[in-house]
Design a protein that fits this description.
- The protein has 18 helices and eight strands.
- The chain has one domain (about 15-440).
- Strands 2-1-3-4 form a four-stranded parallel sheet, sandwiched between helices. Strands 6-5-7-8 form a four-stranded parallel sheet, sandwiched between helices.
- The chain is globular and about 65 Å long.
- The protein has about 450 residues and is α/β, with parallel strands linked by helices.
- Helix 12 (about 295-305) links the parallel strand 5 and strand 6 (about 305-310).
- Helix content is about 50%, strand content about 10%.
- The chain has helices at about 20-35, 50-55, 60-70, 75-85, 95-105, 135-145, 170-195, 200-225, 235-240, 245, 250-270, 295-305, 320-325, 330-345, 345-350, 360-370, 385-400, 420-440, and strands at about 40, 60, 125-130, 155, 280-285, 305-310, 375-380, 405-410.
């Protein structure tokens, strides 16, 4: 286990602004209590952002809080707190870290938990869970938290999308799933109206949905600048610059952040400034949440001439033109179409390649568009949503695309006791040797 935190050198000025966003999101929950606003425990990529913003509900992001604790290497006390009440370390450590915090917070009758990053999170007035056909803890996490916050009401949604079947055309199925998702969002609005005692401002919701659309497109336009050789930004920075899109969607601040990042990357490209001075290998971060306590591993790659111009993780958007969303005047239906098409837009490509699957088609597309030499996956043992499918994705990729170097790193998102720095770096070194051999074979 590594004892000393080794920070990563940031390639962009924009990434250096992210702590202000994270700190602001946490402090906003505390300020909301002073101003009489409602606070909701919320979960990323749930389709609920515009609803919360339109109703002046302040989101408290448990995954962000746990990630901050991990990055500061100070999550252990919360994990132990949850573990003492029989929450296993094999459960999602985002969940157990935050549940441990909630247990402690309740024991202190709402007084600040000593040492909580930037004051911690305020006690919520509601919990808005969302399993979104991906993350099973999102169904049970709010319910487990309610064991300690017994007076806090819970709404848990699904946000399903059609499962992939190479023998079935999903286009007709989409309509059913969009209707289901839109109806679910309408129920969420009713729930929020009941808890807040105020009615939805539908014009404001429509305007915020339009702002989110603009941010989606700008986010992808900005990230696609990273196709440049040398790349002006890699995944090490993207694990920071994803914050406004992931936690501040439907705000002007998020849109403005990506305007600034876009301009910065354009300038770096014009000056031919890359992440590293001598870019030897371009690698795709193919899947998996990172070890937030070990982001310095990206620097280890960089120091050896390896960059990550693209990643699957936290790239939760594609250009709306590509998604070809049907026209609708209902903002909730629009959000539902945006959600469903984001997942299904790789289905047709997967059907055309025998034996492939949509997630692998996405990886192949990024490999080719960003000129990648290999793929790295991170298997975080407590995150079943990613962990369970990574080996299958890697094997399918090699089967349908060819012999491309692949590294599967192992660790966790929050629990540093799972991490061995020396072993991790040895595996990275061996992978780089494989990259070198593969490049020589290609001439």
């Amino acid at each position: 286990m590594a004892d000393d935190k080794k920070p990563r050198s940031l390639a962009t000025q924009a990434a250096g602004k992210i702590p202000k966003f994270v700190r602001g999101n946490l402090s906003a929950t505390l300020k909301a209590k002073e101003e009489g606003k409602k606070v909701a425990y919320a979960y990323i990529a749930d389709g609920q952002d515009e609803i919360m913003r339109a109703m002046d509900i302040v989101p408290a992001w448990g995954e962000s809080f746990a990630g901050v604790c991990a990055a500061k290497r100070d999550a252990e006390k919360y994990l132990q707190k949850a573990e003492a009440d029989n929450f296993s370390r094999s459960l999602c450590t985002y969940a157990t870290c935050t549940i441990g915090y909630d247990m402690w917070h309740e024991e202190l009758n709402g007084e600040p938990v000593p040492g909580a990053p930037w004051g911690g999170m305020a006690r919520p007035d509601m919990m808005l869970g969302s399993g979104q056909l991906l993350c099973d803890p999102r169904f049970k996490w709010p319910q487990a938290t309610q064991h300690y916050l017994q007076d806090v009401p819970v709404f848990v949604g699904n946000m399903y999308y059609p499962p992939f079947d190479p023998n079935i055309d999903h286009h007709e199925q989409e309509k059913f799933y969009v209707k289901y998702a839109a109806d679910e969002l309408r129920e969420l609005v009713k729930f929020c109206e009941k808890v807040t005692g105020k009615k939805m401002d539908w014009d404001r919701l429509a305007a915020l949905t339009e702002l989110s659309d603009k941010t989606w497109d700008l986010f992808i336009d900005t990230y696609e600048l990273r196709r440049a050789i040398p790349t002006p930004m890699d995944t090490g920075d993207a694990m920071n610059t994803m914050v406004p899109f992931t936690f501040n969607l439907a705000t002007q601040e998020a849109y403005d952040f990506y305007k600034d990042l876009y301009a910065e990357l354009q300038q770096k490209i014009a000056e031919k400034k890359g992440v590293v001075e001598n870019e030897k290998y371009r690698i795709l971060w193919g899947a998996g949440l990172p070890s937030w306590f070990a982001l310095g591993d990206f620097q280890y790659f960089n120091d050896k001439g390896v960059v990550f111009p693209v990643e699957v993780t936290y790239r939760g958007a594609e250009k709306l033109e590509r998604l070809d969303l049907p026209k609708t005047n209902d903002p909730l239906e629009h959000i539902a179409w945006r959600w469903v098409r984001y997942w299904t837009n790789w289905y047709d490509a997967a059907r055309k390649r025998p034996g492939s699957i949509p997630k692998v088609e996405r990886i192949i597309e990024y490999i080719e568009n960003y000129k990648c030499d290999g793929v790295v996956f991170h298997s975080a043992f407590s995150c079943r949503s990613w962990h369970a499918g990574i080996i299958h994705q890697a094997e399918t990729l090699k089967k349908v695309y060819g012999d491309i170097p692949v590294l599967i790193m192992e660790g966790d998102i929050v629990d540093i006791s799972s991490y061995n720095e020396a072993d991790t770096h040895n595996r990275i070194d061996a992978f780089i040797e494989t990259l070198e051999s593969a490049k020589k074979r290609k001439g």
